[in-house]
Amino acid sequence: MKTTGSTVLITGATSGIGLGLAERLQDRGDIVIVAGRRRALLDEIVRSHPGMHAVELDVTDPASIAAAAERVTQEHPGLDVVVTMAGVMLPEDLRDPAHLEVAESTITTNLLGTIRTAAAFGPWLAAKPDGVLMTVSSGSRPCRCRRRRPTRRRRPPCTRSRRACACSGPARPSR
Fold it and tell me: Domains, the chain, ranges and CATH?
């Protein structure tokens, strides 16, 4: 993977970490395309970041993803990195029967949105010598690198580097 001179599309880049990543990549000289569902916000980002590009893309809508993939690959044939960051974290109350609708909405955005975006851009990126598909998620799993003791208290997450931590190996089944 080349580390500079890339053309990068970032979904979910209209705020937060996604926008911060877009700004950082642009500062180092990459061509950056921010993607999001709110046109007015995309326009404001492009106005305040000269040279940055934008495309409307709603990860909950397969047709929107396909249209964005077509447009981006035509307008930016050098596209070689796609970062999927679009996601939601909606409050759920398991006592409320409506929580299933919230869960489905979360899964549609966070999981299916990433899968559909990867499917839309995957063939394009696979044809590139330095093509990269990167996904960012808030998902996690517990650290299992420390010896288990018969206790019910929760252990703090592992703070070791990925190389030093046994957690980076395959997931072990929960007991």
Answer: 7-135 (3.40.50.720)
